[in-house]
Amino acid sequence: MKDRSTHARREFLKLAGITAAGTGLGFPSRASENFIPRSGDDVFKPVRAIHERVIRTVVGLRPFRPSGFVLRAEKINDKLVIHNYGHGGAGVTLSWGTAKLAVDMALQTTAKSYAVLGCGVIGLSTARLLQKKGFKVTIYAKVLPPETTSNIAGALWFPTSVYDKTKVNSKFMDQFNAACKISYRMFQDYVGEYYGVRWIDQYFLGHAEEYPGGKELYPNVNEHQNPSEYFGFDYAQQLSAMLIEPPVYLNALMRDFLLFGGNLVIREFNNTSDIAALPEPVVMNCTGLGSNKLFSDKELIPVRGQLAILLPQPEIDYAYVVPVKDNLLYMFPRKDGIVLGGTSEPGNWSVEPDQQEIDRILKGHAKISRSLGV
Predict the structure, then answer these.
(1) 110-131 burial by CB neighbour count: b if 16+ within 10 A, else e?
(2) H-helix or E-strand spanning residue 222
(3) CA–CA dist 2, 226 (Å, integer)
(4) Half-sphere exposure (CA, 13 Å, Cβ side) for 163?
(5) SS3 156
(6) How many CB atoms neighbour CB 312 within 10 A?
(7) Which residues touch 38 (CB under 8 Å, ≥6 apart)?
(8) How far apart are CA 4 and CA 264, in angstroms?
(9) Which of 71, 133, 323, 354 is 20 to 30 A from residue 31's alpha carbon, by CA?
(10) Is residue 338 classed as helix, strand or coil in its secondary structure?
């Protein structure tokens, strides 16, 4: 195949107007001398991307802020509120990192009991870290897994679509880089069946320019020029990445939280007066997109993502992303099904599936499958 144009390469990981490459994603040019081609029984098995195998379609609203996630403390009456929200498309990826940074702020107080608002991946990670310090923790949440936004995540460990690179400052970038490093290391301790975390071969079908959080977070990188047998593209970037299965992972975190004495209260907060009435002196705000209304953060917007989930295919042992601005596609194989994405629509609050987009997603992945021989 012919080489792609420079312009096409610059389109790498631009998601519906949000430059995901600006999150620091990418790699230097590297020869593929360490790469051993697949052959025989080790060839890529194709994903069966057809309508008849779709078992559900889901829509999630990523909590995105152009200037990056919020990680700071403020006083509300006699309460100290520590904010940790707005992680865009990397909530799962950054969860342990931003939770650790938020808990470090909390440890500057003398409080022995804490309230955590939200029971998605950020809230559960924060609660578990506080428990590990010996504190009493109560999670207050409107919904629990499997009803959280975190349950809808594709959840490949890769910090993408976190901020607009033209809107961030050096303080945020320090927090972002620190969170990436912390989270990358901590997730390695959760690899295994119990938590549903595993390493997988990941392929980016395009070109990358930067490393989010530092190049040491991306092992086993290889470039493949003109790999016609690799998904029908003339360029593929390969690396090893962790894949997290949200249904398994979130349930495991919830079990851990309850086993270690955590309290759980189903409750919706309508204003900051409700928060001020809580008995705990320190409140960890992990409400995600809910902070738009609850804390009047109007910079916080949804970035709508839509997924088609296929019947599981245990033989699929790789993942890929086609990071084209107007035709984003990604495939992550999980035990609960093959996750096919995707969309990235800033400012769209609708949670109703769009059949036209589902058709586009299936058609795009079917084309890739045909390149593998079907």
Answers:
(1) ebeebbbbbbbbbbbbbbbbbb
(2) strand 222-225
(3) 8
(4) 20
(5) strand
(6) 15
(7) 44
(8) 53
(9) 323
(10) strand
